[in-house]
Amino acid sequence: MNAVEVDLDAVERAISGYQSVIEDLLALHQDIRFLTQIRPPGDDAPSRVYAHDANERGLTLLEANTALSDTIRARIDKLTAVVAQYRGSEHGNALILGGKG
Known about the structure:
By secondary structure, this protein is mostly helical. It has one domain: Orthogonal Bundle (Helix Hairpins), CATH 1.10.287.850. Helices cover 78% and strands 0% of the residues.
């Protein structure tokens, strides 16, 4: 069995970086919402088509932003679980070996 060494500081920095990205995506989410509320500039067919298409594109961006946020949150959850499990293993190993835990 091969030993695996985990740099917990690096993992925690990655988690922090991902959390920063989530904050940026949340701020961007508010800006994107605006792009789903475009009103036709006029009362003619081209204006209505433009507004409809612009709102659809805004909705697509909103959905992509949400999907990316969900993916990054899932990664944060996994990395947080790895850190917790690794710390738990270190503590258990220290107790077994008579070290301080």
